[in-house]
Protein: Tryptophan--tRNA ligase
Amino acid sequence: MSQKSILTGIKPTGQVHVGNYAGMIRPTLDLMGSNPDGENFLFIANYHALNSIGNAGEVRQFTHEIAACFLALGLDLEHTNFYRQSDVPEVFELTQVLSSVTPKGLMNRAHAYKAAVDANAERQSANPDDGINMGLYTYPILMSADILLFDGGIVPVGRDQIQHVEFARDIAGYFNRRYDTEFFTLPEHSVQENLEAIVGLDGRKMSKSYGNTIPLFLEPKKRRKMINKIVTDSKEPHEPKDPDGNTVFQLYAALAEPAEVEHLRYRFEQGGMGYGEAKRILADKLDEMFEVPAARFAEYMADPGELEAMMAKASRGAKEKAAAKIEGLRRIVGT
Structure:
């Protein structure tokens, strides 16, 4: 790993679930842990969350849950700048400056905006922009500010998020060319294969909108009940089974070590194991992985004041770097 900076963020739009852990949290902790000599930036995108959540209590609760989750799972604050967007107001000053160099046509091409327009067309809405707010439309500019403010060198993303980093590169280029400078570092995306969608309880992508998630720190008995309700086919225990088409196996494969996954695959393909046993193996794995972090998480959530104090301390480095970057920006643009 080179000593480039790594930057990534997560939106506080719901209760943290197993899909978040396998698809984003664990890969992020692993990646930043492998970059001890570089700079790591991890932020909670609480202003991005406002595009879909209009309840202040929910935003605060989900923000605290994400912070407590990362801390409980071992985030190294000695080597990570950990902060909320709202802790760094320079993000929003930079967003305004970047808006002044960004063509509207670039925003028209944003995947999230196009998907919303297409959804309106499918509903045969008279207004193609029905229900679309400017927060969603200008989302890529705020995201670019998130990245460029800290000269994010490497931004880990799933394949469906590559455009976010490409837009940040484009916008940095617009600014640098207008002001004849190399002020902004052009970020690079790093596609993380394990950032792809994790299967939910019903076999679809695990998503709050589908109601098929397993909360990360759910009480073990309740978690087992959820796992036991996973629908499987009617094959008998002695019959060989297809692991890749089975929700229980897919969930286990997203969480367990490679050798453990191969062993369970062998048992599926050889036969001699019922789905009830497979579900127990999955539940046991989740108990093993999250028993200790769940206790830590509960401690953090029980003392919001202490959690806020830890977050304030963890954000100091990011605040100092942001202030210095904006001071340079103002000299360049003349404000």
Summary: The beta strands are 6-10, 40-44, 81-84, 154-157, 188-191. The chain has two domains: 6-198+304-333, 217-298. The chain has a mean pLDDT of 93. Residues 175 and 243 are 50 Å apart (CA to CA).
